[in-house]
Amino acid sequence: MVQSKLQYINPIIYKNWDDHIKTLKNTSFFYSSFWAKVLHQSYGYVPMYFAEISKNRLNFLLPLMEIKSRITGNRAVSLPFTDHCDPIIPDKSYFKNFLNDIVVFGENGGWKYLEFRGGSELFRDKNSSLQYYQHLLSLSDEKTLFAGLKSNTKRNIKKAEREGVCVSIDNSSDAMDNFYALNCITRKKHGLPPQPKQFFKNIYENIIKNNYGNILIAKKDNRCLAAAIFFHFSKTVIYKYGASDVKYLHLRANNLVMWEAIKNYALQNFDTFDFGKTEISNEGLRRFKLGWGAEEKMINYYKYDFSVKNFVNEKNKESGWYNYFFKKMPLPILKAAGNMLYKHVG
Q1: pLDDT digits over 73-85, tens only?
Q2: Which top CATH class is 7-130+300-345?
């Protein structure tokens, strides 16, 4: 690599990439080679991480994945299926010049648009395309954490314990299969296809088996009631996926899964628990996350449309008329729809 020169890197094959990521002040699991491998192996996306490394230090990072689709068109996203991914830019004026260069790069590559999932500090003069809530909890000792919970959250935790719900960390392939089964039920309930099973297999092989994630399973009488997948990197934990059996929601197993995860990561001296993004319209999920004493922030996405040569707004595509039809689909057909569609939506 040429020193002090911006170029694009494939983190999957770049030597010691994750060691470079760990030197960043505001590092994120989503910058890692593990997440890049999952996205590439699952959907065939091409990693294009623009970076500058000088004197063995990462100074600039804009991670992109190029998505090529005959259905939805070619574009670049930073990053697909990622809650937030702020560009690491030490100098805003430097980024402005770079943005002009990458727009030219995208025009030559036939991109429909370029999407940034984060970067509010860099795009203050731009309209955001979408907005989400983010909820962050500072981890401390168990007593302090429990005192910070809303009363309803405390009651739900205690109810799950009284009902005999047991939660364990189970990073086995069987646990991932159990999670996937619950995830299919949950996605159908919300009128969305489940992500392909291969996607979760890739998460298991690249993240869970490399000790950068945990699967927590809630059971009663040997029946799986709820499960969640957490990623961790440096000092931050991310709640990435949750699922449950709708027949047993009254047992509040989801609350106990979250509480056990928070306690476990606090004991391991992690600093921050990130509950992930929440749609603005999803008031129920927002209340659930606020119940843990988390601080609420906003995540802004920005979308540059090459056809109009400007940043544009868009409608959230997770909700729409199609949710009704997905809810009515038999589960095998819904799974097939997920296998077909997700690589195109990015």
Answers
A1: 999 999 999 999 9
A2: alpha beta
- Per-residue pLDDT tens over the stretch 170-203: 999 999 999 999 999 999 999 999 999 999 999 9
Three-state SS letters, the chain = CCCCCCEEECCCCCCCHHHHHHCCCCCCHHHCHHHHHHHHHHHCCEEEEEEEEECCEEEEEEEEEEECCCCCCCEEEECCCCCCCCCECCCHHHHHHHHHHHHHHHHHHCCCEEEEECCCCCCCCCCCCEEEEEEEEECCCHHHHHHCCCHHHHHHHHHHHHCCCEEEECCCHHHHHHHHHHHHHHHHHCCCCCCCHHHHHHHHHHHHCCCCEEEEEEEECCEEEEEEEEEEECCEEEEEEEEECHHHHHHCHHHHHHHHHHHHHHHCCCCEEEEEEEECCCHHHHHHHHCCCCEEEEEEEEEEECCCCEEECCCCCCCCCHHHHHHHCCHHHHHHHHHHHHHHHC
pLDDT for 112-162, tens place per residue?
A: 999 999 999 899 889 999 999 999 999 999 999 999 999 999 999 999 999
Does the domain at 133-298 match CATH 3.40.47.10? Answer given as no
